[in-house]
Write a structure and sequence with these properties.
Layout (H helix, E strand, L loop, with lengths): L2 E12 L5 E11 L5 E5 L2 E5 L3 E9 L10 H13 L5 E6 L7 H17 L8 H12 L1 H8 L3 H10 L1 H10 L1
Antiparallel strand pairs: 1-2, 2-5, 3-4, 5-6
Helix pairs in contact: 3-6
Length: about 170
């Protein structure tokens, strides 16, 4: 696999406890042969794509904040971007000139915003831990009063009802 370009994005997100946690995103352009499937009339074929952008992310655990090292975060994010089972394919191109630095930075902007809005999509167990923490520390009335958008709050409650029931019973 030939590496062509690597771009890093660093930032911080505030978790459900109010702790600011650093993260590193890494976008790598490369070619991976035989990893792409296309559906042509219910027949799947592997094809080679000349270039693709893969992303990996490293998020500092709250217990590691005192020893956080951005360079180690970059190494972890890069490693995840390079492993097919850990990376997120965000764009492919048959034209090598399409995946410019500007395009990759725009993709990182989009992925960063998505991560900040949806950390549970990148952190295993985040949503359940958030709900458990909120139920234990805030209570249902306080949770509902913090939610501004009524429709969003109902959708959020419905989406997480099973998790909330499981942890509310344990109280």
């Amino acid at each position: 696999m030939k590496q062509n370009k690597t771009i890093y994005r660093t930032g911080k997100f505030t978790d459900y406890k109010g702790i600011k946690r650093p993260f590193v995103m890494c976008a790598v352009t490369s070619k991976r042969e035989g990893l792409y499937l296309t559906d042509t009339v219910n027949r799947f074929d592997t094809i080679d794509v000349p270039k693709a952008v893969y992303m990996g992310i490293s998020i500092c655990h709250e217990s590691d904040l005192d020893k956080y090292d951005e360079e180690i975060g970059k190494i972890i994010a890069y490693g995840k971007a390079m492993k097919p089972e850990k990376s997120k394919l965000i764009l492919t191109s048959f034209d090598k000139g399409v995946l410019t630095t500007n395009i990759i930075n725009a993709l990182l902007d989009q992925e960063e915003k998505f991560f900040l809005d949806n950390p549970e999509k990148h952190i295993v167990g985040y949503n359940e831990a958030r709900i458990k923490y909120n139920l234990k520390n805030l209570g249902v009335d306080e949770l509902l009063s913090r939610i501004k958008d009524k429709e969003a709050s109902l959708a959020e409650l419905y989406k997480n009802l099973d998790i909330m029931k499981k942890h509310a019973i344990k109280k």
